[in-house]
Amino acid sequence: MAKSRVSSLLSRVVDIKPGEERIALLLFSYFFLITAPFTIIKAVRDASYLDGPGIDKLPYAYATALIVGIFVSLHTTLQVRVSRQRLITLSLIFFILTAGLFYGILFKGWTWLAIIYYMWANVFGVVVMTQFWMVMNDIFNPREAKRLIGFFGSGGILGGIAAGIVTALIAKKGEEHELFILVIALLIACIFVVRAIFAWQRNVTGIASPGGKKPPPMGREMERAGFKVSYDTVRKDSYLRLLAAAIILTVIVSTFIDWQYKSVVDQNQWAKARLTSFFGLFQAGLLVFSLLIQILLTSKLVKRFGILLALMVFPGVLFLGTVGIAIWANLLLGILIKGSDKSFSYSINQSARELLYIPVAPEKKYKAKAFIDMFVNRFSKTTGAVILFVVFLLVPNDFKARIRAISLVSVCFLIAWIFLNLKVSKAYVSTVKGKLEKEWERGDRIVDRAMDVETAKLVFDTLGSKDRSSNLYAMHLYDLLRKDKLTPEIKKLVGYESDEIRTASLGVLMEAEESPWTVHPDEELPADVLEKEIGEIMELESYQRLMKDFADRIVTEKGSDAETSKMELAKAISLMDSRSPLAASLDDLIKDDSPAVSRYAMEAAAKFKEREYVPLLILKLADPRTQEDAESALKKYGPRIVGMLGDYLEDPVEPLAVRKEVTAVLAGIGTPDVPEFLLRALAGNPEDLQSDLIDALDKIRSRQPDLAVPAEAVRMLIVKEVVHYTHAKDPSAVLNIFKLLGLVYSHEDIFRAYQNIQVGTKDSVAYALELLDYTLEKEMRDLVFPVLEDFTTAKKSS
Amino acid sequence: MVINKREKDSVVIFDIEGEIKRSDITDVTLHQLVKDQLESGKKHILLNFEKVEFIDSFGVGEILASYISTHNLGGKLKLARISKKLFLIFQVTMLTKVLDIVEDEETALQGFFKD
Fold it and tell me: What is the ipTM of this complex?
């Protein structure tokens, strides 16, 4: 009961699923317990520096970031040698002890200590934040992370608000050193929360510690992720390089903004008189604003508009602030621009940035993240400091002049940042796509690519005819020869022997004339000579007259011998010209009851491509024995009969079996005008034909990815399938939805997403949905996602 | 042609007897039988050719159509116990490039689950 109460309470604020309550609260607490002490530490850091070395020396503090990076790289090295839990626990203990030390000595008035403390504070911030996000990435996949990231982030923001207010209150009394006792207490509590998180991880996944593996023995299995390895990991991966570049620009601009903000604070008498209190209060106020953004905006922004917009909000807002402070360099603008920088950084930007890491392979992620977050950040801060020094050299020591100059430089970096975010967003999609394996390809494409189906069938028929009729056998051999398919291998297989040709030559059909063929063993039969000679014979008027009499007699006869003769006749007609008088017998042969006879006749019709045969061929689609041959023959007609086939398709009077086969024929022809007929047929609500029509469209689109299909018509069909699924929970509706989506979006991407949803692991499903989330327009997403989420849940539980 | 169906370890096995040719089919074709199984959710189909004497081009079409239908739904179709002569024909006509042909039923069954 209590559990479901917690779940229902949480679900009002955040999209949380059953079973996630405990870990969600633990991570919320973890983030709270690291952000709170960091807020306190930062307030003391900034106040002690401005009181000590002063605003002009602030760039030196920024420049120490590189030194901080060296200490932080030690963390990177330890990361792969020590288990995650042990690393985090030892780090926290280190910070607890050093906080105790600063409690004793920081306020003794030693100016140099302010710089040491500044560095220590920065090390603290980087290490604890990196550790938190690593744990987060270990536990959640992209879809879960996207859903819950607002909630976790809020934990941090609440921690900052509470700590900011407490800092202001305690500092007001002049007891700044007491703040370190609070820091120590919070970090001790954090150790216990971290223990609970890893215990949960062990229970749920059976894995010893997040990250998936126990630390390997030294020198074996996993490569040590030292500085060089981490650097190389980033250097060699274009996506990681983009992320690193984006962070460089973010941090440099943030450094400029920080200097501008502290400059206006330093200039303001009221703030200068109570620095620690001011910075504490500022943090609290800043985080209230951040919390509102995080709870109300972050998850919704990312879910609704995707990564791109989430990434663009931050530099966009800073652009406005930078221009503003250049015009009005006062405390209010300083608070606004710094507030914007930090609030968006803690909320939307941090969330979006962490999401960008999620599709990166785990073995790369930890090496890269440590390098980017710890070293790149520090390096960028130092670069920002160097740029500030350069500006100070070039611009006179005038408060407003320097503020404006820094704003100008910021604007240039912000423009570069915006362009970079566009690239990052595209690269994110490619990386997600890269996680989706193509599980299988359409079977018909595999068959078409791997083999010559027509020749295969001809070989089988040749073999089959050998015992039945030597004439037919000979004609098949001739056909193979003509098509240049009578390879030595096939010759051997079909058991061609020249004696058989001699005794069963075409002369049997000619009756009056002697066969010109007396094939000797091993004698080559040149195809072109044979074709010419046989062609000339068949054109002889005497031949045609004789064969016409024979045909007229044979077509009405019944029985096995008659069937054989009719097969021979049909085959012979297929070797003739379409203007041959014998072709007049083709109608009767196509209509013949024997599927073997009609099959050869249909082959001849397909060769002649006369429209008069099309209705007869379509009739044969209804008979399962002749269906495939009729389909094959009709496909050979090609685009000229598309209109005629479309008429049959839309005619409800035609048998369903025929309409299904006509659909398959149209898919086989697949010219650009075919989809129009298929969509028109679909618009007529043909219940039993729906899936065949959609499959035909899918087949055409898979072969022609650039084929344009009217999007609105497809959308209406998707709506129908969604409604059908909602009522009937029919899995075939989901397949149809994907096939329809593949008509208007990238077929390859949609196909991959479907396959990974069908057969993939939990992560493959998540990446598939992530790809669809990015690919589909909002309206389409809103339409199909409820179906997909229901379908994937049903699959999981089945 | 006679086709008998049985199931073993969630694999549907069609034991085909006689000749697969267009003049010999009765009410339902091999492809239709395979499609029926696919529609009922089966994904593993084995065609047993031990007692198949002859195949014509119609038979080839049926086998390929069955393969395509199975494959398009993410399933697997295998052929087992094909005679040497028939296998040779399959090789020459490159059907072996597409179809998964195994020696016997046991190998096929193991292969389904290994895949």
Answer: 0.73
